[in-house]
Specification:
The protein is α+β, with helices and mostly antiparallel strands. It contains nine helices and four strands; from the N terminus they run αβαββαααααβαα.
Length: 171
Amino acid sequence: MRGLGDDGVAALLERLESLFEVERDVEVAELRRRFDAAGLARGGEGRFGLWTRAGGALLKARREAFVPLLVDGGAALRSLDVTLLGAALERLAGVDSEAVAAGAIAYTKSAGEAIERVEAGLDGADTAFLLEPTPVAAVLAVAADGDVMPQKSTYFYPKALTGLVINPHEW
């Protein structure tokens, strides 16, 4: 997240318990261990890492606290970690879809890179939320409900060549 400033980060940290179980004073090495190897994690359990220049934390979503904050859609969409985080960012830091479109959030697939950006204050980065991968079963469930995955919520490798997937094939 970009542009919160010291006061915004302090306010965010102060409000975390309203939505999450919080384990504070987590070392950067622990966050890197858990989230740089996130491809090995199961995902979808509402677990997040948080890094600010004030230190790190592990967060576990208190799902019942999120119920009134979640977007419209099926149960699968509403239960995604990325959906929970979006609701949390809006509630705890005032980062809504307009702020996201204006560049308040940057994305990287690397927990280490996210942490380094915050440490360096690169491009105004002052907070990093670290997510586990979205399980493939969750993607299928969202599609089965007729919903669309939130922007930037999936990263699959290897990726199919785009032209093979979206262009008609003639023999």
